Amino acid sequence: QVQLVESGGGLVQAGGSLRLSCAASGRTFSSNAMGWFRQAPGKEREFVAGISYLGRNTYYADSVKGRFTISRDNAKNTLYLQMNSLKPEDTAVYYCAASVRGNIQTMAGGYDYWGQGTQVTVSS
Questions:
Q1: Which terminal residue of the chain, N or C, has fewer Cβ atoms less than 10 Å from its own Cβ?
Q2: 102 burial type by CB count under 10 A (0-12 exposed, 13-18 middle, 19+ buried)
């Protein structure tokens, strides 16, 4: 079992930045590929970014490429998402997820554990 707790969400103006964190406990964190997803009201949950188990490989949705950076600190069992140049369309609940696989997963079905989510609201 893996328990995931997100933090760092909030209200920010367009063009601003936020850093999300996801604290993991339970199963060995360093063996899990990790990802961030988001879900806006009335929309399906969508992939944002993924990172392999050692952090050597990352992958981003086109909508956030160049603005968001995913990283992990396996010594601290923590996943991060640095979000810069935020836009109103980035407004959503952001979820971190862990996969029992070590390679990056881009589909929600590839993840086995989910956090409860943290709200990010970007005002125009």
A1: N
A2: middle
Residue 56 corresponds to which tokens in the numbers above?
């050597």
Which residues, 6 or more positions from 43, have their beta carbon under 8 angstroms from its beta carbon? Answer: 92
Residue 6 vs residues 15, 56, 62, 66, 124: alpha-carbon distances, Å:
22, 22, 23, 22, 24
Residue 120 and residue 54 in contact, taking contact as beta carbons nearer than 8 Å: no
Instruction: Express each pLDDT in 34-84 by its tens digit.
Output: 999 999 999 999 999 999 999 999 999 999 999 999 999 999 999 999 999
Give the pLDDT band of residue 17 (cuts 50, 70, 90): very high
Nearest by Cα to 38 from 106, 119, 109 = 119
DSSP tag of 108: G
Q: What percent of the chain has pLDDT over 70?
A: 99
